[in-house]
Amino acid sequence: MYGLILENMSEYIRQVYGEDRWEEIRRQASVEQPSFSVHQVYPENLIPRLAKKAIQVLGVTEKEFFDQMGVHFVGFVGQYGYDRVLSVLGRHVRDFLNGLDNLHEYLKFSYPRMRAPSFICENETRQGLTLHYRSKRRGFVYYTMGQIREVARHFYHKELQIELVREEILFDTVHVTFQLTFDNRAFTQASLAMTREEKHLPIGASVLFEIFPFCIVFGSDMIVRSIGNSLMVILPDLVGKKITHFFDLVRPLIAFKFHSILNRTNNIFELVTVEPILTERPSDRQRNEILLSDELDSVDDRTLRLKGQMIYMDNWKMMMYLGTPVMPDLNALIATGLYINDLSMHDFSRDLMLAGTQQSVELKLALDQEQLKSKKLEESMRKLDEEMKRTDELLYQMIPKQVADRLRNGENPIDTCEMFDSVSILFSDVVTFTEICSRITPMEVVSMLNAMYSLFDTLTERNRVYKVFLGSKS
């Protein structure tokens, strides 16, 4: 789990309930970090631990806490510029909801180890829609509800009501169904636009396969009928076989079946090959020698990842997958046996591959430097936290805790003074201390004083009284 969610929780508690409450929650949850780095990965159990203690300390329900934490998140991410991304994700609320998976794909560039949820819209009307939420994580249902409601209010100025219809766990995935009620007149306008698209000019299949070299055409029986030119080179046995024998569906989190895909064509689909791509070409050995030794870890994964759109071809009664290979760098391209000219020339796939390679070294160096700075900062924060605790302990030994806390909060020292009708005071003194010191060694004096002070400290704590040391002139 990235620190972005943890830092949002920390800031929400500090702003709404105060710094003292956050410190108490952190102490009870046995969390040492005073703050969290948004790009660092933390253990998954941190959120449940902190949330459990927060609910107890703050005296709120789980629904109220996570809901308001989700509302706060929308404003919190504005500090990092993500509010601009949220504001342009869709013209209407329905567009935003349909594009939530696209948003998480974009965020994966900054958070590559993110375990993103999946969102699917269906049963859309003028009054709202049904939203399906699937996630590998548990406990974020109310958090998601608060986020969606706040986005509709903040960016689209619409009041959105969200109802939890059903929540179930299938294998290791949480499946939640929400009913969203809001002004969705944009749905009617979109439906009219779809009817006008039927008048588009036809295009030949051969041209289509050239434009989309990684496309896949399959029928309701999931058997592949045709594939793009580049895909034919690396997966020549795919045609005539079931697509499920060669590919796994990574996103969205639905069953890899024809009817499931047909109802989710507005989502981005990510496929990954079941087996690694094994290409035996004369130049493969020479190409592998290009890889640097410190980059061998990234070559172990030779699976091919495709990301794209599913379109139902009514004339063919088949589904066409318009996919593009996901290649983070040239090493991934080399590992799967592809070349630059295998990528589509009608989009920016080739340009992005070459441009990304030019910047990868500089970006990696900058990232390493930032991570090093972040570690040093966290270490400094940890040491500062330890020193503050030591300072508090020393201060409480000199001044009563309740008085010290009031002085720290900025109260006038005179205002902390109190009057008592009667108090019990015990004065103690070491009789003939000077004479005793003249008869023993300095180390024996130190040992005697340490033993005496330790005894007084024990009696003081046992009887819950306060000790004041007065310097003696003897």
From TrEMBL:
Pfam families: Guanylate_cyc, HNOB, HNOBA
EC code: 4.6.1.2
Keywords associated with the record: cGMP biosynthesis, Coiled coil, Cytoplasm, GTP-binding, Lyase, Nucleotide-binding
Coiled coil: 367-394
Domain Guanylate cyclase: 424-468
Alphabetized InterPro entries for the sequence: A/G_cyclase, H-NOX_domain_sf, Heme_NO-bd, HNOB_dom_associated, HNOB_dom_associated_sf, NO_sig/Golgi_transp_ligand-bd, Nucleotide_cyclase
GO BP of this protein: nitric oxide-cGMP-mediated signaling; response to oxygen levels
Localization annotation: Cytoplasm
Main location, first listed in the record: cytoplasm
Domain of life: Eukaryota
Any one Gene Ontology molecular-function term assigned to this protein's record: oxygen sensor activity
Record's GO cellular component terms: guanylate cyclase complex, soluble
Stored PROSITE patterns: GUANYLATE_CYCLASE_2
Protein name: guanylate cyclase
Species annotation: Apis cerana cerana
